[in-house]
Structure formats: structure tokens, C-alpha cells
Amino acid sequence: MEDLILAIVKPLVDHPDDVSLHAEESDSTYFYQLSVNKEDMGRVIGKQGRIAKAIRTLVYAAGQKADKKVRLEIID
Q: Subunit arrangement (predicted)?
């Protein structure tokens, strides 16, 4: 799952080395915190959050295979 998120986000940004992903797992949930460079924040979120919504949709769909809920938070 982490590889999927990084494979989607890194090509979108100008500073791929600044992309970091922190993961936590509980019994029924995967929780991911994605951090990118401040200059790349707009590229990851997109107009009206469309890119962020698309990323979350892909990640949530992949989480369905594992029978766990997935939460993705994009932080500064």
C-alpha cells in the first residue's frame, strides 16, 4: 500500500526526495500521513481537491482487498 501511494505521488511533485509517508495500523484500519514539500502541496491537492480525492479513491479501493479501512491524510 505504501508503495502504491509513493508511486502515485512522487511523479506529481518537483521535489520527490521531500515526500515522506508515515503509516500506522490498527485491527481494522490503515492510517497514512503523507507529507510533501510546501511548494508541491498544490500539485498533490489539485484544483478543488480533485487530485487528492483521486489518490484517496485509489488507495481506498486497494484497501478493500485487505478488508481494512484506509485513511490518507495529507499534511504540511
A: Forms a complex with KhpB.
